[in-house]
Amino acid sequence: MEKSRSELGQIIIGVARDPLGLMGLIIVGVIVFCAIFAYWIVPYDPIAMDIKSRLQGPSTAHLLGTDQLGRDTFSRVIAGGQVALKVALPAVFGAMAIGLTLGMIAGYGPKWLDNLLMLFFDTIRSFPTVMFALAVVALIGPSLQTVVFVVMATSIPTYGRVARTQTLTLRNSEFILAERSMGASMARILGVHMLPNIIGVLAVLAAMDIPTVIALEAGLSFLGLGVKPPTPSWGALLKDGYSLIRQTPWLVVGGGLPIILATLGFTFLGESLRDVVDPKLRKQR
Amino acid sequence: MLSFATRRFGLSLLILFVAVTVMFLMIRAVPGDPVQIMLGPRATPELQAQLTAALGLDQPIWKQLLIFYGNLLQGDLGTDVFSGRSVTDIVFQQLPFTLELIFASILWSASLGIALGAYAAAHPNTLIDRIAAAISVSFVAAPAFVVALLALLVFAVHLQWFPAIGAGEGFWDRLDHLVLPAFAIGLSWVGYIARLVRASMLEVMGESHVRTARAFGIAERRVVMVYALRIAILPVVTVIGVGMGFLLSSAVFAEIVFARPGLGKLVIDSITTRNYPIVMGSVLISTALFVISTALADLINALLDPRARTAH
Amino acid sequence: MTDTLLEIDRLSVDYETGRGDLKALRDITFNVNKGEIVGIVGESGCGKSTLISSILRLTAPNTRFREGEVRFKGKDLLQASERQMRNLRGADISIVFQDPMQTHNPVLTIGQQMLDIQHRSKQSKADKLAHAAKMLGAVGIPDPEARLKQYPHEFSGGMRQRIAIAMALMSEPDLLIADEPTTALDATLEVQIIERLQELQREFHCAILFISHHLGVIAELCDRVVVMYAGAVVESGEVREIFHNPKHPYTRRLIECDPGHIKERARILPTIPGEVPDLANLPGGCIFRDRCDQAMARCASDVPPLDQLKEGHHAACWLNHEEATS
After folding, report:
1. Paired sense of beta strands C93-96 and C175-179, if any
2. What is the DSSP letter of A66?
3. A131/B195 CB distance under 8 A
4. Min CA distance, C192 vs chain B (Å)?
5. Is C302 helix (H, G, I), strand (E, B) or coil?
6. Beta-carbon neighbour count of residue C324 at 10 Å?
7. What are chain B's partners, defined as 3 or more CB pairs within 8 angstroms?
8. In this complex, do A130 and B248 lie within 8 Å of one another by their Cβ atoms?
9. Between chain C and chain A, are at least 3 CB pairs below 8 A?
10. DSSP string, C195-256
11. What are the CA-CA distances from residue C193 to residues B257, C162, C170, C197, C202 (Å)?
């Protein structure tokens, strides 16, 4: 435990040293903070309507103005962050967990299983993501859970492939062969020896994946096929903003900016993380 | 080359086959009676029975599957429940708009991206290079539909430089209508491609055969363009081929934002009206498009790089 | 004087690095005459690559020419313009590189590349291709016309190296630089390539600067040899003379350690103890001092000059100086 704590500390320090990484760290930190404490820090209740104050521009009372139902945009932006992470984090970690397991099985198990799983991955990957998402939503109906499920399903092959490649590479490495010759079981080899090596790479992948996932959720909500109103989501803000684009630009700005910031933040963080965790990969920049 | 091409297409067909089957099973796996859902409150027992028979839903699954494949091979994607028209017709009527948009997006972003990347590789570590690197990271980050909305806001609504709605008529009008959506979709690609080309070029320029070319006094221009760039471009071809899925997704959003006709708009509209045959038909076609483009990318790659022909 | 083709005159080259200046070449002096085959012998890090890239002026951005001249046909190449250098490369001065597997462009056919090399010639494409086919035949590639349409990866390593030689000789250069052309090949291939090279040299009368660490090949092929160590010339002279009468401890040890030279069976092959010095932190005095078993006090403080011992035989060692002066 000691070792992993100081390793984590070292990683964080390494990221903080890189100017872009530091920026990423700060942005992500702010987002996570807002997401966790959203309902404590919002100036107004994000779903409270106040028709009298509808469609106002930015003012001291409403930093980003109000929407067509008089709801405070700024509060909705902050609360939207919570929704974004509520979808993104379970989806990414779920996909990572499943992809990791399937990938390791594919890499370590018999060839026929590998081929089967690869076909499964390739098939999912052959659907354009949004199209696939739309098809699923069409069948199951929109909701937060649907979004999480769809987002998770489309991400699994990414993690699966990487985990598989890593497993295949490690499979024939010396220390694994040594373990096998000492009679270690497959579960032990996979769980104790391969896992730590693979997780690092997957963690970096996850960090870079979160923006994609946030964008997907926002996109679906924008189309009206994501979270149900009145739940505040950045995508929903954009939806309202789009229909009101000639009356007020502030909803589009309010919905769009956090998405861009979140994407930037996580991308910077992810790239910096990658450079720190595996300097070898730096060359591919 | 020919054997490589056949093998590659064979693989594509296999994947397409599996994808189609998955789609089919997905529809059937949905809880509830699709006919009831489709008809909604209009569902009378007679209509239900009619539709069920029309969709073949009263048959056993394996028979349905066979009928489905049979129809598919004949190019029949089913019939639109509401209008009675063939789904294939409807989808292929909208497809060109989407293709036009995707093509325009790739054209401008790849050209600019390759040019920028090659320039950055030829002048590495200068201030311009570093600024370009930082900017391209930022652009890669912003999702296409957000860029589309902001572009709509700024350039169409506020500045009124470009139209906000539709696809336009006539060559120049259509081009005018393409500018903003293609810009939105392509923006993240420029940065990505530029970085890819830069890294690829730097790697190739360091390789021995470039040194050999220089040692024989071959003009630097030819060394860069023919000996280096031709090899460095290969990853871009693959990236675009694989990126088709991403491009299709972005196009869906761009079509909605700019109220353009196309596959995306078709799907969204069909979802809200629960028009399953069209939804499935559209998804199938776009999947096929994606599979074809990856196969095409591999083929072009093999054409340009003789080493790749033996790889598979 | 008219016989001299290439004169390296007290060439000193540094690389600027974060650690300080790497003194890659110090005071290098030797000549190559027309039609002569001169070998350069030395272990890794002796400066061979720097020397070659200096002659061709295809150097890394952090290269600094501190002193000296590289005169080719009387003209100092270090002062020449890039355009002038480009006119020389592949025309008057050609090169064969060490690694045949990486030396050709993988996406162009051999024919295309051999056409590109003839970019100065005003001949028709058909003539150029014919010339290329003829050269391929001269290096022993069977069915050359057909093979021109093939890609590098369709040839074995040995054939690729032969193609590289064909490409280098196409313009009938005055000077051919061969940078360890057989190091990446096995022994039988090496023999074939060397024989082929000898034939071609007799036919084209080019001078060859042949870099290698394989003493047997040097002895077989070269007229004269230059021995380099850690960026300096330690000995030079005619091949026969050097091999029979080496005057520098490093040369002596090289000969002793060469597997081809060893007459008796031994359990342990002789090596030269120690390591090549760090070029950024050079020791004072003779560069070989730390590994020399005959080092004297003087060797630690003064750099020995490249003395002329006999006609054409030079060595940089205080031992000879003692003899010479005593």
Report:
1. parallel
2. B
3. no
4. 23
5. coil
6. 11
7. A, C
8. yes
9. no
10. HHHHHHHHHH--EEEEEES-HHHHHHH-SEEEEEETTEEEEEEEHHHHHHS--SHHHHHHHH
11. 68, 7, 17, 6, 14
pLDDT, residue A280, reads 46
Calpha distance B251→A178 (Å, rounded):
52
Mean pLDDT score across all residues of chain A: 80
Residue C64: which of C23, C101, C110, C36 has the closest Cα? C23
Identify all chain A residues contacting B290, using CB atoms and an 8 Å cutoff: 126-128
pTM reported for the whole predicted model? 0.74
Interface touch A138/B271, C-beta < 8 Å: yes
In contact, C162 and C141? CB cutoff 8 Å? yes
Instruction: Output phi, psi for B204, to 5 deg.
Output: -65, -40
Please state, for a pLDDT cut of 90, what percent of chain A lies above it.
Answer: 1
Rounded Cα distance between A237 and A65, Å, is 12
Residues of C in contact with B215 (CB under 8 A): 56, 58, 89-90, 94-95, 97
DSSP letter assigned to residue C153: G
CB contact residues (below 8 A), chain A span 244-283, against chain B: 245-246, 249, 252-253, 255-256, 259-260, 263-264, 267-268, 271
The secondary structure element, H or E, covering residue C133 is helix C125-138
Residue with tokens 């590479």: A169
Q: Each residue of A168-219: pLDDT tens digit? A: 877 777 777 777 777 777 677 667 767 777 777 788 888 888 888 888 888 8
| Cα distances (angstroms) measured from residue A75 to each of A46, A53, A247, A258 | 5, 15, 20, 12
How do C207-212 and C37-41 pair as beta strands? parallel
* B chain contacts of residue C120, beta-carbon cutoff 8 Å: 217
Residue C291 contacts B where some CB pair is shorter than 8 Å: no
> What is d(CA C34, CA C42) in angstroms, rounded to the nearest whole number?
23
Neighbours of C320 (CB within 10 A): 19
Taking the C-alpha atoms of residue A71 and residue C271, their distance in angstroms, rounded to an integer, is 84
What is the Cα–Cα distance from B228 to B205, expressed in whole angstroms? Answer: 6
Contact A134 B245 (CB under 8 A): no
Q: Which pLDDT band, with edges at 50, 70 and 90, does C261 fall under?
A: low
How far is residue C251 from each of residues B131, C229, C248, C316, measured CA to CA in Å? 53, 10, 5, 11
- Which residues of B fall within a CB distance of 8 Å from A282? none
Question: At C192, is the pLDDT very low, low, confident or very high (cuts 50, 70, 90)?
Answer: confident
ipTM higher than threshold 0.85: no
Angle (CA) A266 A270 A271, round 5°? 120
Answer yes or no: are the C-beta atoms of B283 and A135 closer than 8 Å: yes
Determine the residue of chain B that is closest to C96 in CA distance: B212
- pLDDT-derived band at C51 (thresholds 50, 70, 90) equals very high
Residues 6+ apart with CB under 8 A from C320: C247, C248, C307, C309
Q: Which residues in chain C belong to E strands, given as ranges?
A: 4-17, 20-33, 37-41, 63-72, 75-76, 93-96, 175-179, 207-212, 224-229, 232-238, 307-310, 313-315
Neighbour-count burial of B284, counting CB atoms closer than 10 A to its CB (0-12 exposed, 13-18 middle, 19+ buried):
buried
| B268 contacts A263? CB cut-off 8 A | no
